UniProtKB/TrEMBL annotation:
This is Uncharacterized protein. CDD domains: WD40. Residues 65-81 have a biased composition (Polar residues). WD repeats lie at residues 196-230, 231-272, 272-313, 317-350, 371-412, 413-449. InterPro entries: WD40/YVTN_repeat-like_dom_sf, WD40_PAC1, WD40_repeat_CS, WD40_repeat_dom_sf, WD40_rpt. Residues 1-15 have a biased composition (Pro residues). Residues 1-81 are annotated as: Disordered. Keywords: Repeat, Repressor, Transcription, Transcription regulation, WD repeat.
Amino acid sequence: MPQPQPTLQGPPPNQQGPFQGGYPPQGPPQNGPYGAQPPQSTASPGPGKGGPRQNRGPGGPATPQMPQQLPYNNDPRQSPQVVHPLAGIARGPQYPVGNVGNALAELDLERLPPQFKKVEADWFAIFNPDVPKILDVDLVHTLIHESVVCCVRFSHDGKFVATGCNRSAQIYDVVSGNKVCVLQDDSVDSVGDLYIRSVCFSPDGRYLVTGAEDKLIRVWDIATRTIRNTFSGHEQDIYSLDFARDGRTIASGSGDRTVRLWDIEASQNILTLSIEDGVTTVAISPDTKYVAAGSLDKSVRVWDAATGYLVERLEGPDGHKDSVYSVAFAPNGKDLVSGSLDKTIKMWELVAPRGGHPNTGPKGGRCLRTFEGHKDFVLSVALTPDGAWVLSGSKDRGVQFWDPRTGNTQLMLQGHKNSVISVAPSPSGGSFATGSGDMRARIWSYKNI
């Protein structure tokens, strides 16, 4: 019996999603060991030329690199982020752990006492010996793709997760792990690669927005698998998207040095914000008043989304020392986190200036703390919906959970064989997703203990 279509008034009822037939769910995901992937570089957004990749200029640091199927040790513990004794030398006994700070990558997994580690078939976690263990993680599903997974994003009700890969966006049921929808524009020339660099759901769950290397933003009606809107105007690759909670405003960031705001009801560009270098990441504040962007120029900017007035530029001695790759607002709307190629995450407080006039925005932002512990580029950052944890994904293949109050890392998760390009927590809490250059997305659970 056909199900009623979801409406703009809210998300679909609990017993149904926006997928009413027409696409057969795939079989159950595979959670066992998967084929080995060699290390690949994960580069940053560089100049985009559009069209097939062979006709484009050289990729920048975030250009997806297709892994080659070359074998290496399948032991999940053989990670470049964890130091091991030389092969053939007898391992010593387990040892007491001293003060390691956030440098969990320096710990020897084999000799680490069992209370500080969790080792499974093809992933492991190391828990910080210097802080109380109050969090646990587990693998829920492995979602196998045919290309690099550039991005992951949950629907607002937490029931679905979308991934962006080469030429398509895919949507999965979070509970079952089944693929329920593939969104691909068949009108696009099939020659060459066309990576979907960013995806985001509308608040009501009806639409999925995709941003791609062909400079176009597509708004998909999920139920009908058709394109509702196509927005053009960017002159280079689109690297990041966010959907405002008002249900009609989309922010996009591009290598063309602009942030643009779009109205899906009016089908038009309503604001263009220009900066001095390529835009790598955008985020809209929970109250929809502000839009933030990170850039190749090492800074984070925050604008008034209604007027386009620049209310903050976060940089300087306490700022990042390399390109900013990811930004995310905290649930309180007053704090912001950023991740950078300088291997750090920073938390910023957006505060009103002393003696400032009303409605002048959050001038006077300051860096509250810097999170250090990753061994390579930080490519993605996010906060859990309760604001209790900062998540980060890195080129070092690791995901870390950080306490935003102290700056301490709670754990380091190694669950991929290539860069963790994207990390996203579920808005409903208790789970998060990761996307990687190893052609896998994974859904994980986390819980307090």
